[in-house]
Design brief:
314 residues; inorganic pyrophosphatase (n-terminal core); six-stranded mixed sheet; 10 helices; 12 strands; globular; binds adenosine monophosphate; Oligoribo/pAp-PDE_c-di-AMP_PDE; 3'(2'),5'-bisphosphate nucleotidase activity; Bifunctional oligoribonuclease/PAP phosphatase NrnA
Length: 314
């Protein structure tokens, strides 16, 4: 598969790389890590990173401004994005050829070349694997800038190597990446330092979550609460994992009210919850997934289903 991807990359002079909406470090890490690897090894090619910048990623990097005409005859690569609706932006369809590189369940096998490995901790780990193939067969070399991005993606998607998706290979890849010269400390601070107001909201979550006897929990963050703590719905992404620290917690859902919808963020320490996300039109990983609800009544149904799943798992 990696040989097919590299053969295809060699055939195109413009390559546009996309990732998913509501980006996280693995989205940016895999997208921009790949961009810098390709730019470095094919200086004559134009490599562009598409998608809207999200301010939560300011510490990490920025995408490029991509014009409509850039897509003419271009190779498009989408990383870390399970389904086409989540591709940022939708002009990804207007290129000449499409490659999907991802580690989520392959429910939507879009693209002319589909490279999906659900055993990989992150899309960034897959980009590193693509790099090793390029290194061994084409003489590719890595840059510190690319290594920093891929390392951030791995750290982000493994919750600093704590999630079960972390394998021996993940540690080995991270071990290789830290050989490059980038400021790991500054990167970690960028990823994990939180505004005081966000920590206050975290305190609210710890004070107000409800957990049943089977370890199923939820907390509702209404628009009023967001306003009270002066935090946006997007800011809350750093808080989603925190309920996992609660003893006895099996799986939890955080419901965040936005203007017209409620964002459903599901996490689990064991029971499979992406099936539940799919019931509500969402998706994701077995232990980290999400969906959108359109009323508090629907959100309550998610809570009830999560309770059933945890009860069945006990
Ligand atoms: P998040 O809670 O936003 O960090 O999302 C966790 C994971 O769930 C992501 O990696 C996505 O794969 C998936 N996900 C979140 N929201 C949705 C959605 N509305 N539709 C499909 N997948 C989603």
């Amino acid at each position: 598969m990696n040989s097919q991807i590299i053969d295809t990359i060699k055939q195109y002079s413009t390559i546009i790389i996309h990732r998913h909406v509501r980006p996280d470090p693995d989205a940016y890490g895999s997208q921009l890590g790949l961009k810098y690897i390709l730019e470095h090894n094919y200086p004559d090619k134009r490599i562009l990173a598409a998608g809207t910048h999200d301010y939560t990623m300011d510490f990490l990097d920025f995408p490029d401004l991509v014009e409509d005409q850039d897509f003419e005859g271009a190779l498009v690569i989408v990383t870390d994005t399970a389904n086409t609706e989540r591709v940022d932006d939708q002009r990804y369809k207007t290129g000449a050829k499409l490659i999907k590189i991802d580690h989520h369940p392959n429910d939507d096998a879009y693209g002319d070349i589909v490279s999906v490995d659900t055993t990989a901790s992150s899309a960034s780990e897959l980009i590193y694997e693509l790099f090793t193939y390029g290194r061994d067969h084409e003489g590719w070399t890595m840059t510190a800038k690319a290594a920093r991005l891929l390392y951030a993606g791995i750290i982000g998607d493994t919750g600093r190597f704590l999630f079960p998706s972390t394998t021996q290979k993940t540690f080995a890849v991270a071990g290789e990446l830290i050989k490059y010269d980038f400021d790991r400390n500054a990167l970690h601070n960028g990823m994990y330092e939180m505004d005081r107001k966000l920590l206050h909201l975290q305190g609210y979550m710890y004070q107000n979550f409800k957990m049943d006897e089977n370890g199923a929990a939820h907390v509702k963050i209404t628009k009023d609460i967001l306003k009270e703590f002066d935090v946006t719905a997007t800011d809350t992404s750093l808080l989603v994992g925190s309920l996992g620290n609660v003893k006895g917690m099996k799986a939890w859902v955080i419901l965040i009210e936005e203007d017209t919808e409620i964002r459903v963020r599901l996490r689990s320490k064991g029971p499979i919850i992406n099936t539940l996300a799919k019931e509500f039109g969402g998706g994701g990983h077995p232990l980290a997934s999400g969906a959108t609800a359109y009323s508090w009544q629907e959100a309550d149904q998610v809570i009830a289903r999560l309770a059933e799943i945890c009860a069945a798992a006990n």
